[in-house]
Design a protein that fits this description.
The complex is a heterotrimer.
Chain A (H helix, E strand, L loop, with lengths): L1 H25 L1 H28 L5 E11 L2 E9 L1 H24 L6 H20 L3 H19 L6 H32 L4 H6 L8 E2 L3 E2 H16 L8 H4 L5 H10 L4 H8 L1 H4 L3 H23 L4 H21 L3 H28 L17 H15 L5 H15 L5 H27 L7 H5 L6 H27 L15 H8 L3 H8 L3 H19 L1 H10 L1 H8 L4 H48 L7 H22 L7
Antiparallel strand pairs in A: 1-2, 3-4
Chain B lengths: L3 H21 L4 H26 L3 H31 L13
Helix pairs in contact in B: 1-2, 2-3
Chain C lengths: L2 H21 L4 H21 L3 H25 L4 H6 L5 H19 L21 H9 L4 H22 L11 H5 L3 H4 L10 H4 L1
Helix pairs in contact in C: 1-2, 2-3
Classes of the chains: A mainly alpha, B mainly alpha, C mainly alpha.
Amino acid sequence: MLNTYLTIVLAPLIGSIVVGLAGNRLGRTLSHSITILGVTISTVLSLYVFNHHVLNEGEIFNQNIYTWIQIGGLNISFGFLVDNLTSVMLVVVSFVSLMVHIYTIGYMHEDEGYTKFFSYISLFTFAMFTLVMSNNFMQLFFGWEAVGLVSYLLIGFWHHKESAIEANLKAFIVNRVGDFGFLLGIALVLMFFGTLDYAETFSQKDQIIGLTLFGDFSAITVICLLLFVGAMGKSAQVPLHVWLPGSMEGPTPISALIHAATMVTAGIFMVSRMSPLFELSDVALTVVMVIGAITALFMGLLGIVQNDIKKVVAYSTLSQLGYMTVALGVSAYSVAIFHLMTHAFFKALLFLAAGSVIVALHHEQDIRKMGGLRKKMPITYITSLLGTLALIGFPGFAGFYSKDMIIEAVHYSELPFSGWVYFAVVLGVFITAFYSMRLLFLVFHGESRVDKHTEEHLHETAPSITVPLILLAIPSVVIGYFTIDPMLFGGWLDNGIYIDTSHESVAKLKHHFHSAFSLISHSVMTLPFWMMIGGIATAWLFSLYRTEWADVIQRRFKRINYVLVSLYGFDRFNEIIFVRGALKLGNLLWKISDMAIIDQLLVNGSARFARFVGSFIRPVQTGYVYHYAFFMIISLMLVLGWVLVASDYSFYS
Amino acid sequence: MIALSDYLILSSIVFCIGLAGIFINRTNIIMLLMCVELILAAVNTNFIAFSYFSGDLAGQIFVFFILTVAAAEVAIGLAILTLMFRSRGSIDIDVTNTLKG
Amino acid sequence: MEFTSVLFYIFSFFFVTSAVMMITARNTAKAALLLILTFFSAACLWLLLEAEFLAITLILIYVGAVMVLFMFVIKMLDTDKSTLRAQFTRYLPLGIFVSIVVIAQMVLVLNAGQFDLEVIGVPERHDASYSNITAIAEQLYTVYVYPFELAAILLLIAIIAAITLVHRNQPRSKKQNISEQVNVQAKDRIRFASIKPKSSKESK
């Protein structure tokens, strides 16, 4: 099995390196064939691994492949930990990556950097595999940083665009802040557990229960909070969410791959992987839950006022990540992974569909200039409809199951603030339905507001774009129905996730669960369902029925509108405090510390001091020989006298 | 009987006379050189006294070499003096302060 | 009082007195002559100390060559008397003070008893067949032959240095500077002048 795992990890890497170095000479067709072949191999083998581990209940594979650093008693190596959690992630990542690779053939068709793009997304796939399959913190961090790097490269892919460069810097720097906390958390793990290996850490977890750090702070809480800071950066939770909307500057395929399905879910995966540690700290779990709820609710609100098609989907992603985080907070890790999986499919689908629309309209992204596209682009429309229904939680579709399970889990949770969180996630259902259907209506329904010239050439996009849409639509519809029972309650993820008995959300969920079908039939009686209907109705009202009412409300509620449009002021805050603060600090250090202290005081000052001392000593050299002779003779006299006196006249024995 | 200490005191007296000569005649370079010769004479006497009283000929050998070196030094010192006189016209030491710091 | 002691006192008297007179001499030539007297007294003292070779060497070489050189230079150069006398008395007290202090210090040490007759006895007098030259030569050419050779080279260097410093005549050889010769250009050597020829009528 080791060779299988190695092949899964290395196939995309080899593809990436070959195409990256020799892409121009190989030509476009050969380049994309090589990389797609690599990712296809990984996908097939991932399915095989999934079959082996999950369906056939294979043993957990935990082995160090290569010792990287050995310092004293600390052994940092490169190794694989493959259990059911890993298998699920492998399947999700490889499948979505494959779809994106195929999609890119059509989307980046006219771009100059065609081969470079394929190389990057294969490299990303490799990094994500490394992250998911690692068995120690250091390799996890390596994968973490590597996906951050490739994200930076891809966001700024069109590097001649000023806004793209600003966005990729912002993404990297904000990620860096998260990584800083993450690294502190890893350091604390090393300090308290003495090892960076998962298995060894988790086996010692009971020893840390009573330990404290810096006085009264519980050590395990601090560790978990710091690790979560890393997850906040990578999975874009408030306040480290500011980079995700900016990352839409990159080409749409990567928005789908990285910023919807895989990289941003790394944080969720990491917290699930660390479930033995998080379970020991209720404080950390509460914090996780609350931050997730804040993100879910407030980012959803922002999706309502966006006019760029990709930005709407981006804020939707932020909101759904908030949902996943909430699930983590209430110790429903398997539910979070379930939602991660379903979200990967339908969100990637939505992004790719948005890309299809963009390409068809010759790179027009403003939804106010779209409309009525469903007649001209039927495949895109139908797949978008399916994806949207999955997103808003329409009964029967994948998102319905995962979202409902989250809401139920929150309902059963006993953590503090869980009441408020329940309110937030339920309200979030309304908001999600509102902005998603608004998007659908404004883009595909209603009168066409498309530019006349573009409308003449409007037609459905190439098969290389639409086939991935269809292939992603299928799981968006069905996968929820088939996997909810085994994944949440059938123990699929049991050997990767640990839940403490004091956190009973999942147990209660299991208690109340009958079957997937019964969930559909009972859905009519639940609050989230009516929230969703309300959202659909409101969206229809403002987008199709009386569109002018939307403008009226915008004018009447200017203040709220302003708050939403300026994204709650996070960017402004960051700019004023951190950016200008850093500039001022740099200025201060330059003027005072560098110029005044180091240059004037130390460097020039020591020269001036030497000259000053010299001005006293120089006159001793008079130039007259007899002065020198006098000095010698008088010194002789003094030395003789001193020797005589100091020896206490002992020669008079 | 003349003890070693008598010779040593004698030589130290002449040494100090030479030192005083340097103090007194500091402007006249020739006088300076001659006072240095006086000092060397005193030191030589010292060496030979020690050599005699300890029976070791090393002192006399050393005096031999001192004489050699002193002769060479005088030769060169006077050559420099001649040059100085040629270029400045007097041997007044007050004008030779160009190495002033 | 032994005869040698009397001799010691006589010679040492001359030694010291001529030294004092030398340093207070008004005339540089007189000072040189007094220095010669000092050296003579020193040589006699050395004879008392059975260093015959060195005593004679002192007279032959030091007085005979070095002091003669001094006299040459003194007479050659015109020493201005006024500058000699100008600052004579200015540092005199300080000089006397320093000398007396140093003498006092030395006497304190030397009289302390380490060098008395009881500690370091009078050595045996050699008999008439003792040859100081042979004894020195035995040491000089075996144990100290290396410094001896070096001393010879030192003297050679002194000769060359002294001659080089004072040699006045510039070498009058006609030497070429090759690089200058090679870099010469026609315009350095030839100047074309345009001269109108006189008319044939006037040249007749």
